[in-house]
Amino acid sequence: MKIHLLSGFLGSGKTTAIQYACYNLLQQDIKVGVITNDQGIKLVDGSFFESLGIPNKQVINGCFCCNYNDLDASIQSLIDANNPDVIFAESVGSCTDIVATVSKPLQHIRKDVQVTISTFADVRLLQMLLAGNSNVFDEAVSYIYHKQLEEAGIIVMNKIDLISTTELDKIKELMQEKYSTKTLLYLSATDADGIQQWLQTLNTFSPAQHSALQIDYEIYGAGEAKLAWLDEELTIYNSTDNAVQSAVALASTIYQKIQQQHFAIGHLKFLLNDNIKLSYTATTQPDNQYIITNQSTATLLINARVQVTPEALDRLVKAAIKDIEIATNSHITISSISAFQPGYPRPTYRMAD
Ligand SMILES: Nc1nc2c(ncn2[C@@H]2O[C@H](COP(=O)(O)OP(=O)(O)OP(=O)(O)O)[C@@H](O)[C@H]2O)c(=O)[nH]1
Ligand SMILES: [Mg+2]
Q1: Sign of dihedral through CA atoms 198, 202, 203, 209?
Q2: Which sign does the torsion angle of CA 265, 271, 272, 278 carry?
Q3: Whose CA is nearest to atom 15 of ligand 1?
Q4: How confident is the model at residue 16 (pLDDT cuts 50, 70, 90)?
Q5: 57 CA to middle of ligand 2, Å?
Q6: Using one digit for the tens of pLDDT, what is the confidence trace for 264-275?
Q7: Which ligand number lies closest to the CA of residue 49?
Q8: Domain 227-340, what fold?
């Protein structure tokens, strides 16, 4: 069995890559399983794979490294239920050091499993950070971003459809200079050829190329603590059957309020009616390909990961809810809410070289 670990910053395209890779492999009758991971409990990614009918498990309430035993139990549970040939495991976008804390322990404990790690990077965000545009995220957050790239065997520069060929050539040059020892891929996860290229690389990649990071956990912990997580589940009631429109407007209003206040967005994602994902990142917005249906109720799961305090994020979302209730003549009830900062990273195992 193969386990492909995906690392990479919030919103870089890990879930999208797994989704299309699963379609590709299922077409070839290769059995797949997915493990998603996040700091919270009510999570868009896990529910999204559930809605796609792809066998999946979630490691919740903290990253793989700090919940190694839950990761292992999820692997076992997928094996018992479905015996997959390939498992994709997506780590939290603010997590790093996974060679030492996840990949090496996995290879040590499950000797029959082949493990790879790919780090995903949104090519436009990378472009900004490589250009020294350091005001996108706090220095400690950028530290995590660069550590994710540093520990990768394979770096996937994703979303190349968003830049010109001239810009792409420039990035290739810079990445080659900085990361010449790594396997560098340039693709779009939404493109079948791009996914095929990534899967081919995974098939031929030797895990021996991964080596553990030198990392300062004080800066890593400080970087995670700069980010706020807000998970909220709500139901929208609208007597003129405009509940779905109101939900979409709420997502957009939250995004606009974050933009107005100049808070850096890691990933602002929503799951509408348990199956439609709306996602805003530092560089992308929803593609609006969903179909608006006339309904008197709609559910919305909000997962916001933003560089701000949890209290300010909570206030901002509450204000957006109020605005939408008034603007669309809707009533919104909140069934669960949790706003917090990720805790200091304390890995279950850490195996350096
Ligand atoms: N244009 C474009 N957008 C993409 C591509 N891949 C992903 N996206 C978009 O980027 C956004 C974030 O993608 P996800 O796959 O959810 O990112 P992620 O890395 O799983 O995010 P987290 O789980 O929050 O860390 C979504 O709106 C995707 O549709 C791509 O190749 N091109
Ligand atoms: Mg994801």
Answers
A1: positive
A2: positive
A3: 13
A4: very high
A5: 13
A6: 999 999 999 999
A7: 2
A8: Alpha-Beta Plaits (3.30.70)
As for ligand 1, residues whose beta carbon falls within 6 Å of it are: 8, 10-16, 45, 93, 120, 158-159, 161-162, 188-190, 267, 279, 281, 284
What is the per-residue pLDDT for 207? 64
pLDDT at 260: 96
What is the number of the ligand 1 atom nearest to the C-alpha of 191? Answer: 31
Tokens read off for 251: 């997502």
- Over range 264-292, report the average pLDDT: 90
On whether the 2-222 domain is CATH 3.40.720.10, my answer is: no
Q: What is the pLDDT of residues 55-111, one digit of tens each?
A: 999 999 999 999 999 999 999 999 999 999 999 999 999 999 999 999 999 999 999
Domain range summary for the chain, segments of one domain joined by +: 2-222, 227-340
What single string gives the DSSP state of each residue in 199-252?
HHHHHH--GGG--PPP--HHHHHHHHHTSEEEEEEEEEE-TTSBHHHHHHHHHH
SS3 category, 94: coil
Mutate to test the pocket of ligand 1, among 276, 279, 288 (most ligand atoms within 8 A of CB): 279
